[in-house]
Specification:
heterodimer; A: 218 residues; alpha+beta; Alpha-Beta Plaits; two-stranded antiparallel sheet; 6 strands; 9% strand; elongated; B: 348 residues; mainly alpha; 3-stranded antiparallel sheet; two-stranded antiparallel ribbon; 7 strands; 57% helix; globular
Chain lengths: 218, 348
């Protein structure tokens, strides 16, 4: 093959093509493997499903079986959210995939109600005032105080952060001696601002409890 | 008459715009959040030289140039937060369901499934379905060719198939029955009805891609907020793996297998657009039977024979390929289209 110009050319081209082919095969295999490993490593346990606390949905959300039936998993509520507290479940959450939820200790709802206005299917029913979020099923949940963890209740300090931030101060949360908070469930929307600001950071002394549970949809 | 090359450029621009908007909308959502919290400038400064920082700066530069977003105070120009917010909060969602200002548009498949699962019809949903349904009834499966981000990705992977052919790794072209997707659509809606939950929306590629890109953008900003840098794929989940698999099969096994045989959305648009008045039409006297259009058609149709029935997504590639000017979009009596064979045979 060494004699003559043309055969060398074609030989060289053939070699280059074969080389490129093997590189492509190797690259695709490595890419697939790497992607799979990266996905496995990147997978967090299903965030937002707190077995003991339930799933916190945006204000105005329908009760659970109806919500899953009507929600089209479109991301519009999460885009509208002024506080950017609405998260969307990933595919690893199974039937909850793509549905909105709130993790109050990270970011709580400020009751801007933009999500209720944009929902294309009224899975989140439009609310015109924050007060409307006080009655179930529009309620996100109810804040519950753990008196052993709360510094004001335990007597290790004087706090009152939850009372100060509460949008329904003196109705949903009232204070007693040393600013110890008491939650009045009938006025609490479950927005979770109290949980977000709670100074007990490891396990918040006030947490939003929702009656929505994962696997309740059937 | 619009020239075929113009149609091609218009279509490509629309596709790129849709894909870009799927990344822009979640970024805009974060921007309005920082704006509302009076933190935009601080965030831009803090994230200088990183992707989220550059994104915020870009959005900010554009919004500040719009009228009514700055006002004068004490002789200096200041940001008018209310004015800027009004712009930043105009876009929500993606191709699956989008709200532009107060105009809501929802994918007919999303609407059909929501109605089937909830057994309720809400007026907001009908209003959102109006524009897409009317567009599909008049123009046919145009969503697939003009908007669907997966359709765009498949057109890009067509080029990859050519590279593979050059490498002498012959991509296969397995064929199946086009009627399959209608069965899958019916089955999916039935399952949604029985289980009272979304099924098709979970596996519909453009909706999956929208959610994955959304999660990716949000994850990048979430990471930046806790002081970590870099593009993080932790926001991506198993849906990305499913999409990668669909694309892999597209490249190596069967061109447009999803669109032709599986896609429940495509099936619904085909049905809605079955009697559309606007369609690609052949002028038989001008046609020289060169079959360029047959090779050009991504959906594997034969523009020389089958009258462009409900499978055609009006992409216009056949128009661009035709050297005799024998093909064009024409307005026809919708009733004349009934009674014709609507689901053509595969053309290899």
């Amino acid at each position: 093959m060494s004699a003559g110009g043309a055969p060398v050319m074609s030989d060289r081209r053939h070699f280059f093509r074969a080389f490129a082919r093997e590189v492509t095969k190797l690259g695709v295999s490595a890419g697939l493997l790497g992607g799979f490993v990266a996905l496995r490593r990147g997978q967090a346990p299903v965030a937002g499903v707190r077995p003991d606390l339930g799933i916190v949905r945006p204000p105005g959300s329908l009760a659970e079986p109806d919500f899953l039936a009507r929600c089209i998993r479109c991301t519009r509520c999460a885009d509208a959210c002024e506080a950017q507290c609405i998260r969307l479940f990933g595919a690893e959450a199974g039937d909850l995939y793509g549905t909105p939820h709130i993790v109050p200790e990270d970011k709580a709802c400020t009751l801007c109600l933009a999500c209720t206005a944009t929902c294309p299917t009224e899975a989140i029913v439009p609310l015109t005032s924050a007060e409307q979020a006080m009655t179930p099923p529009a309620k996100m949940g109810v804040a519950v105080v753990d008196e052993r963890l709360c510094v004001s209740h335990a007597g290790t300090g004087i706090c009152g952060a939850c009372h100060t931030i509460c949008p329904f101060r003196n109705r949903a949360i009232t204070q007693s001696f040393r600013n110890a908070p008491t939650v009045h469930a009938e006025f609490c929307t479950g927005c979770g601002l109290c949980e977000e600001v709670c100074i007990v950071k490891d396990r918040r002394a006030i947490r939003v409890v929702s009656e929505r549970r994962a696997g309740q949809e059937a | 008459m619009v020239r075929p090359s113009t149609i091609h450029v218009l279509r490509r621009s629309t596709q790129v715009l849709v894909l870009a908007s799927m990344l822009l909308v979640p970024a805009l959502a974060r921007y309005q959040n920082y704006l509302a919290a009076r933190e935009v400038d601080r965030m831009i400064e803090r994230w200088e030289g990183t992707l989220p920082g550059a994104t915020l700066r870009g959005i900010d530069e554009v919004i500040r140039r719009l009228p009514g977003t700055e006002r004068e105070r004490a002789g200096r120009l200041q940001r008018d937060r209310t004015g800027a917010l009004a712009y930043a909060q105009q876009l929500r969602g993606g191709p699956w369901s989008i709200e532009i200002g107060s105009i809501s548009m929802t994918d007919p498949l999303a609407g059909a499934e929501s109605i089937a699962a909830s057994k309720r019809v809400r007026r907001v949903l009908l209003v959102g379905l109006l524009l897409p349904v009317v567009a599909t009834v008049v123009l046919g499966r145009v969503f697939c060719a003009w908007i669907c981000p997966m359709g765009f990705i498949f057109e890009c992977t067509d080029k990859l198939r050519r590279v593979l052919r050059w490498l002498e790794i012959r991509p296969r072209n397995v064929r199946a029955s086009r009627t399959l997707k209608y069965g899958l659509l019916a089955a999916g809606l039935l399952v949604a009805f029985v289980l009272s939950t979304a099924v098709l929306g979970h596996v519909y590629p453009p909706a999956m891609l929208g959610r994955e890109l959304h999660a990716l953008v949000f994850a990048i900003f979430d990471r930046a907020e806790i002081g970590r840098r870099g593009l993080w794929i932790g926001g991506l989940g198993w849906a990305t793996a499913a999409l990668a698999l669909i694309v892999l099969v597209e490249v190596s096994v069967s061109r447009r297998w999803w669109c032709r045989y599986v896609c429940p959305g495509g099936a619904l648009y085909s049905l809605l657009g079955a009697a559309r008045p606007v369609r690609v039409t052949l002028r038989a006297d001008a046609c020289t039977q060169c079959a360029r259009c047959v090779r050009a058609c991504p959906m594997g149709l034969n523009p020389m024979l089958d009258q462009m029935g409900m499978e055609c997504d009006s992409c216009g590639e056949c128009l661009a390929s035709c050297q005799d000017d024998a093909l064009g979009y024409e307005l026809r009596n919708p009733l004349a289209a009934l009674g014709r064979p609507v689901i053509p045979r595969e053309q290899a």
